[in-house]
Design brief:
heterotrimer, A: mainly alpha, two-stranded antiparallel ribbon, globular, B: mainly alpha, about 0% strand
């Protein structure tokens, strides 16, 4: 099975290469069609294989492929954890490839997008499979670079170029940190295979350094605050189906790296790291969603909301670390199961939302929320699926987003058992932060859906929007269906995720109360339970009773102007805008945090110039984190600039000094 | 009782409760209105008036805005069903409820969160400025109220070792929990949130149509006829639901449990009615004695509730350590 | 001690802290004074309960002082002061209400983390009382830092003092509780008088300035 997957990766690489060659003399549409269809088939095969692997409960399989450095063959290994993430990659890949396929006729993206797309997918497939540091880093870089090229798709825009530069820098920092992490893990013995790392005897200090490096390296890729700054710039800049992959899938691959190192490669991680991850995760969740509520660009909103969800998952991982360090293996498992389930869910609904937003953007030509509105009349299917996605990401029952958050809250409720006082106090606070993030996410998606799809069109293009191609609608409906199904039958996923977590933690995470697939009942000693399906059926049943009322009531319905307290204004610009919608939240939360300021410029009476209202936001992360870093770099650059204008004699002097220094060092070491 | 006996009692109680909450909700709202009128020196409308209003609205034709979508017409049904279902889940007079294990407190709060989600969408659908205004304020209130409720729930759940409503009620009645600072704080936070969620004074005014202050009314401005009837009825059930929730979480005494048998359940019904009336009196007195606050003070009000919830949790952790 | 005794003591102490939070939340001067009076009432009840349970009759004196002076005379005096001098009745904050509430909650967490591990071998009620009292003290201090008006400074100081008395009452066998209470009251009285005098000076100065300004305005 492992070889089959590696085969599909080869096919993906071949597709990219063939596209590059064929593009010279074949017409573009056909070539792209083949590339996307091939990618979809390869990913679909992968996803199906992974489902089979997970359901069968087979143990790991390994393979060594003679590529890479001459004396080292690349090693690959498939185990449960990898399979879960491969499933995410496969599902996300097949659906976004289908979107690309359906959308290929109307695309305005440059040709290279289609060539790098399969390479990107191939890279993401290889990362979870990698079983040594070299192949891991190689696939990691492939994933980064391929996505970087696709971010450059609309390179003619200034912001895109800026986004690409920031992305490149952050990706480089991330890779360096990952290298350092693996280097520390390998230690002096230099065993670069994961097998050797698992067995390695590592000092606590070195272990702490590894955790730090992994959190920086993979955290920056996943978009953890304060390393998130590139994400909301780069993800929206890429073409829609790539944005969906980057947000829905690539961030999960980064989390895979964290989970792999923390729970598999390292023998033990201290509770302090659990505390740190809880704190960072909670902050990431709240800050991410707060940024999201305040944005005007629909794809930027979605990217920031990815930051929020990454925060939620990181919290779950941090909780797992804390429980594991305190000896509660089953609770650690429960937290990790919640995190993994949330990762799967997020990959589904974030793909759905990105693809739905992409359909709206290509139908209207606007990413700015202030230009949209009333699209529900012209794009009913897109609107309905986007509504399901919004409800799922806002964690509304009975959809999947709620199911995973419910599990996470159940795990959080066991916080008092933790022995350390800092953790005891941190857990309720983090719970409050998560609850705040969830509620703000609901506000955020009310805003996105309401401004985009409801109300009256704010531009002629929005008024004339056309429903997306049928292929795209199929993708959207499938994703929305998946959100509903995983929501009402969460045990379907949990029953395959929990054995994987059991092998990592050594204790079964879910106490199955013998009630099977219908009920989620995480802990035997508590009687908390939730059943999405029964909930759905009961609500449906009660809703059908509504029709009795409906029949008794007057059935007449007529349409008229909106009443609006007696003074309706026909101009759609008098509607609430996206910015005005977020004003109360901005006032309450952002006044201190982001220093949100509102300036009203009111002309004198008699003056006909328009009144202006400007909102200024200020990003503390840029100010306190990035600005100092760039300043230091700038300072170093300025100083070293002087080195360019030296005479030959001075250069020789520097070399001479270096030589003497080296010799002295040699002498001292001897 | 045997298992099948328990099941049938549970089913019966469930149906009785489903009807009871619907039947009682308008009377409760009427009672609060009547008491407020009396406190303000007016005679006030009779208890039956809300029923008459609803019946009248049901008979009227529906007029909706030109550009309202299918969502606008679906939302009254969605909202009403969800609130009704949530009210059915809360143990009012008995804990022997068939649907009890389906959704716990966290799910219940999320359920009420979805109600807010859809109400806000309804406000935005007609594309009027008032609708958007109401929706934006509502989500601001919700973004603070929801975490506050969750904190309260965490506190109660940690005391009762379960997030299931039935377990909470049974634990609190069955064991000697005593008075706890954390529960006191949680109760206060819960009351603050309940006031905000039900659009009561001082957060919102259920009887106003003044644009500067209205929140809930602004969202439902464009509804008429049977749609409006459903939304009004949903608001009434919601008030009942929150009072029942507070009763169930903090003063569940007298509720009929599994061990009590039929007589106990019947007694529970009487006690419940009494407690409900007490709740209405407190609400009316409170509302008559306090002034409405500015919309942007609501953030501080609910932020205070959220912090109280967090404090309650922290104190609970302390007393556990003791 | 039975659980009921324990619970009531706990609730009384908790309500003192809760009212401390309300002090931070208030924006109006009279509301603030009322809440302070309630806090003093809570303190008096807590002291009286302690006296009743443990039979330490001198604590009744503490309770009486708190009830008469802090819940009665001082609020009354402050109110008179405000009305008499027309002091501005909204509270001028250096840190917003929301952030100061968050800061207050953080202080509570801090004092809990500080007190509980340190006093691991003390009796349960004492530990909790100390944690609650320390939180009240810190909140009073926070109030003094983050509110600009002189009156709020006094109230912050007295809230701090309430916390101290709460701690003194909570620890069994602490000597000089009553004396301490009286000493503090005297100090508060002095502070109030100080404000009184400062305010008069302030007022004359400002009158003076206004006079000067208007004089210059006439000349221009």
């Amino acid at each position: 099975m492992l070889y089959m997957i590696l085969g599909t990766v080869l096919i993906l690489f071949a597709l990219g290469g063939a596209g590059l060659v064929m593009g010279q003399w074949s017409d573009r549409e056909t070539v792209e069609g083949w590339i996307y269809a091939g990618s979809a088939a390869a990913c679909g095969l992968n996803a199906a294989l992974m489902v089979g692997f997970l359901v069968s409960g087979a143990s790991g399989m390994e393979a060594a492929v003679p590529v890479g450095l001459p004396w080292l063959s690349a090693r690959f290994r498939l185990d449960g954890l990898a399979a879960i993430f491969l499933l995410i990659v496969g599902t996300g890949g097949v659906l976004s490839a289908l979107y690309g396929f359906a959308h290929r006729r109307h695309t305005q993206d440059p040709a290279w997008v289609a060539f790098f797309f399969p390479l990107f997918l191939g890279g993401m497939t290889l990362v979870p499979l990698a079983d040594d540091a070299f192949s891991f880093l190689l696939s990691w870089e492939l994933m980064s670079l391929a996505s970087w090229f696709m971010v450059l798709a609309s390179h003619q825009h200034h912001e895109t170029r800026r986004a690409a530069i920031v992305y490149l820098v952050m990706a480089a920092i991330g890779t360096v940190a990952m290298m350092l992490a693996f280097g520390t893990l390998a230690g002096a013995a230099g065993g670069y295979s994961f097998e050797a790392m698992r067995g390695a005897d590592i000092s606590p200090w070195a272990g702490a350094m590894v955790v730090l490096f992994v959190l920086v390296g993979a955290g920056s890729k996943a978009g953890v605050v304060p390393l998130h700054a590139w994400l909301p710039l780069a993800h929206p800049a890429a073409p829609t189906h790539v944005s969906a992959l980057m947000s829905g899938v690539m961030t999960k691959v980064a989390l895979y790296a964290i989970i792999r190192v923390l729970f598999d490669l390292l023998p033990a991680v201290g509770w302090g790291w659990g505390l740190a991850m809880l704190a960072v995760g909670g902050l990431t969740a709240v800050l991410g969603v707060l940024y999201a509520v305040l944005q005007r660009d629909i794809k930027t909103v979605l990217a920031y909301s990815t930051v929020e969800n990454i925060g939620v998952i990181l919290t779950a991982i941090g909780l797992a670390v804390a429980f594991k360090a305190s000896g509660y293996a089953a609770l650690a498992g429960l937290s990790l199961v919640a995190g993994l389930f949330h990762a799967i869910n997020h990959s589904l609904y974030k793909s759905l939302l990105f693809l739905g937003a992409g359909a709206v953007v290509s139908a209207t030509g606007y990413r700015d929320l202030e230009r949209l509105g009333g699209v529900i009349h012209r794009m009913p299917v897109t609107a309905a699926t986007f509504l399901i996605g919004s409800a799922a990401i806002a964690a509304l029952p009975p959809l999947n987003g709620f199911a995973s958050e419910w599990l996470l809250f159940q795990a959080l409720l066991n916080g008092p058992r933790l022995p350390e006082w800092a953790l005891k106090l941190a857990v309720p606070v983090v719970g409050a932060l998560l609850a705040l993030a969830t509620a703000l996410a609901s506000a955020c998606f009310v805003r996105v859906f309401g401004i985009t799809f409801l109300g009256r069109p704010r531009s002629p293009e929005a008024m004339m929007a056309k429903e997306a191609e049928r292929g795209i609608l199929v993708v959207l409906v499938v994703l929305a269906g998946a959100c509903v199904i995983l929501g009402v039958a969460p045990m379907m996923v949990l029953s395959i995720v929990s054995p994987v977590v059991e092998t990592l933690m050594g204790a079964p995470p879910l106490a199955d109360g013998g009630r099977g697939l219908l009920w989620m009942e995480p802990l035997a000693e508590r009687d908390s339970s939730y059943s999405g399906l029964i909930l759905l059926v009961a609500v449906m049943g009660m809703a059908s009773l509504m029709f009795l009322v409906r029949r008794q009531a007057s059935g007449r319905l007529s349409r008229s102007h909106a009443w609006d307290c007696g003074c309706p204004d026909p101009n759609p610009l008098t509607q609430y805008t996206a910015s005005s919608f977020s004003q109360p939240i901005r006032r309450v939360f952002a006044t201190t945090l982001f220093r949100a300021r509102e300036d009203v410029e009111m002309p004198e009476p008699g003056d006909v110039s328009p009144a202006r209202f400007t909102v200024s936001l200020y990003d503390p992360v840029w100010q306190w984190f990035y600005r100092p870093v760039t300043r230091v770099i700038g300072w170093v650059a300025d100083k070293s600039d002087a080195a360019q204008l030296m005479s030959i004699r001075e250069y020789l002097a520097i070399m001479f000094a270096a030589l003497i220094l080296l010799l002295t060092v040699m002498m001292v070491i001897r | 009782m045997t298992v099948s006996g328990l099941l049938s009692v549970g089913l019966l109680a469930q149906i009785v409760q489903a009807i009871l909450v619907l039947a009682l909700a308008p009377a409760l709202t009427g009672l609060v209105r009547l008491l407020k009128a009396r406190l303000q020196g007016r005679r006030g409308a009779s208890l039956v008036q809300p029923y008459r209003d609803l019946a009248c609205l049901l008979r009227k034709d529906v007029v909706i805005a030109e550009n309202a979508s299918w969502l606008f017409q679906a939302i009254p049904y969605i909202v009403f069903t969800m609130i009704w279902f949530a009210a059915v889940l809360v143990p009012t007079f008995t804990t022997v409820l068939l649907l009890g294990p389906t959704a716990d407190l966290i799910a219940l709060v999320a359920f009420l969160g979805s109600v807010r989600f859809f109400m806000a969408l309804a406000g935005m659908d007609t594309g009027t400025s008032f609708g958007g205004l109401g929706a934006s304020r509502e989500v601001m209130i919700g973004s603070l109220a929801e975490p506050a409720v969750l904190m309260v729930i965490f506190t109660v759940a940690l005391v009762a070792h379960s997030t299931s409503l039935i377990d909470v009620a049974e634990y609190l009645t069955g064991t000697d929990v005593g008075i706890r600072v954390s529960l006191l704080m949680a109760l206060l936070a819960m009351v603050m949130v309940a006031i905000a969620e039900n659009a009561r004074i001082p957060v919102d005014n259920p009887t106003t149509h003044l644009e500067l202050t209205m929140v809930h009314e602004a969202m439902i401005l464009e509804y008429s006829g049977r749609h409006l009837a459903l939304i009004e009825a949903a608001a009434m059930v919601k008030l009942l639901l929150y009072i029942s929730l507070i009763l169930c979480m903090f003063v569940p005494f007298g509720i009929g449990t599994r061990a009590d048998g039929f007589a106990g359940i019947g007694l529970g019904l009487v006690v419940y009615l009494g407690k409900l009336m007490g709740g209405a009196v407190i609400l009316a007195v409170f509302e008559s004695s306090i002034a409405k606050m500015r919309v942007f003070r609501v953030g501080e009000f609910l932020g205070g509730a959220l912090l109280l919830g967090v404090l309650a949790m922290i104190y609970l952790y302390i007393s556990w350590a003791v | 001690m039975s659980t009921l005794h324990y619970d009531i003591a706990h609730v009384l102490d908790g309500s003192v802290l809760l009212l401390g939070f309300l002090l931070l939340y208030q924006r109006r001067m009279f509301g603030l004074i009322n809440i302070f009076a309630f806090q003093a009432l809570g303190l008096a009840l807590a002291a009286a309960w302690q006296a009743h349970v443990h039979g330490e009759s001198h604590l009744y004196a503490t309770a009486l002082i708190a009830l008469s002076v802090k819940a009665g005379i001082i609020p009354y005096a402050l109110r008179r002061l405000i009305i008499h001098f027309g002091i501005h009745r909204t509270i001028d904050t250096a840190l917003g209400i929301g952030p100061s509430l968050v800061a207050g909650a953080t202080l509570v967490a801090l004092s809990v983390m500080l007190v509980l591990p340190v006093t691991a071998d003390s009796a349960a009620l004492t530990r909790e009382k100390l944690a609650l009292a320390l939180s009240t003290v810190l909140i009073g201090l926070l109030m003094m830092i983050t509110r600009r008006n002189a009156i709020t400074q006094v109230i912050g100081f007295m809230a701090l003092e309430n916390g101290l008395i709460l701690a003194a009452v909570g620890v069994q066998g602490m000597p000089l509780v009553v004396e301490m209470g009286i000493a503090f009251e005297v100090m508060v009285a002095f502070i109030i008088f100080g404000i009184f005098f400062f305010h008069i000076r302030d007022r004359f100065e400002s009158l003076d300035l206004q006079y000067l300004e208007s004089h210059r305005g006439e000349r221009r």
